[in-house]
């Protein structure tokens, strides 16, 4: 899933190319595309795109009176759409602009989870953004230490919980735990203040590295292209120490870690009943 760096760089690309252009129309191409019943997208027709931004893993297209809040989920992509075919493969929604350009939101696969919320007024005060925690890369060690105490859980799950800190997913959670040299299963309720500083720094480092990589591209990377030390590198040597990167498999994601760097050499195994449920 695209995370904070991928979404941020993509918002910047779309903003550079499209800001200032008036909207000519919005069409939902799948019946699951639009997540809100009101206001009508027609309200934004004729309004200039003020900016394309990001909050958490959401893209925001601000047309002044209305904001389109777009979630790509796992396989969604929002791209310029020069072809404008009548039934695009995986088509979810299309925006057309007054200068005859367009955006197409597509979603690969059959999940049908990518979608668009249309909101009037401050989008940050409304769903789906209102419940999000602070932006992960700007959270301070002091705030993080407070969140650790308030939400005791495994560090990997903590980092992925959008209501606690927004913008991180499975890949960055793996990379941040490795960078911080902490077990992905470390209980946040037991971490010390100094470890909050280490994690806050690891978040910024991992986000900034991915952001630099992503800004150097002309389109969003695929998950296999993204840089990393442990994510999806099971069996490979850890670039820090040479130990073998290990994995704990869940149904919908994999926790990758280096035993030597992160767990004092101990191998992790999931022993909870949730193993095959989530
Ligand atoms: Zn290592």
List the helices and strands and how they pair.
Blueprint: H1 4-18, E1 23-28, E2 51-55, E3 58-62, E4 66-71, E5 76-80, E6 91-97, E7 102-107, E8 115-120, H2 141-150, H3 155-160, H4 170-179, H5 193-215, E9 246-249, E10 254-257, H6 259-262
This protein binds zinc ion (ZN).
Provide a descriptive summary of the structure in words.
This protein is α+β, with helices and mostly antiparallel strands. 24% of the residues lie in helices and 19% in strands. The protein has 6 helices and 10 strands. It has helices spanning 4-18, 141-150, 155-160, 170-179, 193-215, 259-262; strands at residues 23-28, 51-55, 58-62, 66-71, 76-80, 91-97, 102-107, 115-120, 246-249, 254-257. The strands form 3 sheets. The chain has a 4-stranded antiparallel beta sheet, with no helix packed on it. Strands 2-3-4-8 form a 4-stranded antiparallel beta sheet. Strands 9-10 form a two-stranded antiparallel ribbon. β2 and β3 (58-62) form a beta hairpin. The radius of gyration is 20 Å and the shape is elongated. Mean pLDDT is 94; it is low at 273-278. The structure holds zinc ion. Zinc ion is lined by residues 238, 240-241, 243, 258, 260-261.
């Amino acid at each position: 899933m695209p995370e904070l760096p991928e979404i941020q760089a993509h918002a910047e690309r779309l903003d550079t190319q499209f800001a200032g252009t008036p909207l000519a129309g919005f069409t939902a191409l799948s019946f699951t595309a639009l997540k809100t019943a009101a206001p009508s997208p027609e309200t934004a027709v004729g309004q200039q795109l003020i900016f394309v931004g990001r909050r958490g893993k959401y893209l925001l297209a601000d047309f002044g009176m209305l904001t389109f809040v777009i979630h790509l989920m796992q396989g969604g992509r929002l791209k310029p759409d020069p072809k404008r075919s009548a039934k695009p493969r995986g088509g979810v929604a299309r925006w057309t602009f007054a200068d005859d350009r367009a955006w197409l939101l597509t979603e690969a696969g059959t999940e049908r989870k990518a979608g668009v919320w249309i909101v009037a007024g401050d989008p940050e005060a409304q769903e789906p953004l209102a419940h999000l925690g602070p932006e992960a890369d700007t959270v301070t060690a002091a705030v993080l230490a407070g969140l650790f105490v308030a939400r005791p859980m495994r560090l990997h799950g903590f980092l992925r919980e959008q209501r606690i800190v927004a913008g991180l997913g499975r890949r960055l959670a793996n990379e941040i735990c490795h960078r911080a040299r902490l077990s992905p299963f470390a209980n946040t309720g037991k971490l010390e203040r100094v470890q909050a500083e280490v994690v806050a720094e690891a978040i910024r480092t991992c986000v900034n590295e991915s952001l630099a990589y992503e800004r150097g591209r002309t389109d969003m990377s695929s998950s296999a292209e993204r840089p990393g030390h442990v994510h999806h590198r099971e069996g490979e040597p850890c670039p820090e120490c040479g130990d073998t990167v290990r994995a704990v498999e869940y149904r919908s994601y994999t926790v990758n870690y280096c035993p030597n760097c992160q767990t004092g050499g101990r191998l992790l195994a999931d022993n909870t009943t949730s193993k095959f449920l989530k």
